[in-house]
């Protein structure tokens, strides 16, 4: 594990040019259709999730168990990753290690080329989106077909995902119908004549379009929700069955998985297979839970005859070195935090400039990519710190705590340096005005007489207090009210109402 991590240098996977979050969000909130679509979708999912969780009497215990399993695994990640490699290799698979997105894309591209194929089918995967795998394959003359319904919509529309669970949440049924009508023919089987925006018709059009892809494909690409260290088993949970087709029909399967997806034992899955479906799709269990270990030697059996596992770092060991920020690596990608976030509901996923939108993206993307770019430096501020995300997280990630921690990193800049068992920030030069203000506050707060005089002066001049701040402070008060000054200092109130001596010194 790395001991020194530079957060203001080149990020692990540089994002494309994208405005900072405030600017992108300002444009998004002006789109009334988008806000209406997001509000309806997130409120619906939120209500269903609450009902599904309420059915479980020991939800708090499951949540705490998930947190402890993840924390234990992250503390011993080096050992469990070696165990995964040994188990996968023993089961007939091949393990590749990728330090960053470029290396992972090169490995996968070379593996596909070695098969002689120019097409692949894909299971919905945030990790392959993170590294831009589809674009890398296209540059090498290989076409990747997304098979998840929402991912298919995004791909046909030449769009970007805007939600972890429902990538096309920003599209309504009429838009999807128009996309299918105009784009399906360019990618394969065209949409049926007279296609309407009825959900059943749209789903049938997608099913017919994808069926020929499944039957023709010789190479499948997936991520994984979990990897079991003791057996080398990979797990994918889904609701449609498209993933099952990609995992069982192709002769070659390539899985790109973040190193944090490990769990130590089969028994640990019992916790997550209860909390993940209820938190994400509000189901008691996922309709399709696919598990595979290595390869199959039979031509008639389901499963790949050649299996490759690409273990991806791409900034994860840097996040692991941060004792506060590493909480983000517990994430099981349920998206519950997005559905309760008032900021996401109004701004949408595209404003975050990352494949990981919402509260989890606001703490994960800056750690994986660094805070050198405007978008990544602004993401820790894309929150009201209301705490709703922490309340619904099934692995108890304290997202508000990490947001505040990352804001400190952005303000201070410089390097995060390991000192013993903890990571401390080595401040960069600059920010002289802020440091001067903090020194002045320290001077006043450590002198009770000065503080007492200042409080009384503020109380007596309260009618002259401005409603907005001048200069650079105006941007802050444009969207916030200054707290009102009390009519009298607390010490005066205490003496008046209690009749006691001023002991607050």
TrEMBL record:
Region of interest (Disordered), ranges: 463-505
Domain LUD residues, every copy: 83-312
Presence of keyword Protein transport: no
GO biological process, one term: lactate metabolic process
Basic and acidic residues: bias regions: 489-505
Source superkingdom: Bacteria
4Fe-4S ferredoxin-type domain span: 328-397
Gene Ontology molecular function, alphabetical: 4 iron, 4 sulfur cluster binding; metal ion binding
Record Pfam families: Fer4_8, LUD_dom, LutB_C
InterPro entries for the chain: 4Fe4S_Fe-S-bd (IPR017896), 4Fe4S_Fe_S_CS (IPR017900), FTHF_cligase-like_sf (IPR024185), Helical_ferredxn (IPR009051), LUD_dom (IPR003741), LutB/LldF (IPR004452), LutB_C (IPR024569), NagB/RpiA_transferase-like (IPR037171)
Keyword field: 4Fe-4S, Electron transport, Iron, Iron-sulfur, Metal-binding, Repeat, Transport
Boundaries of every Lactate utilization protein B C-terminal domain copy: 406-496
NCBIfam families, per database record: LutB/LldF family L-lactate oxidation iron-sulfur protein
Designated name of the protein: Iron-sulfur cluster-binding protein
Organism (species): Streptomyces echinoruber
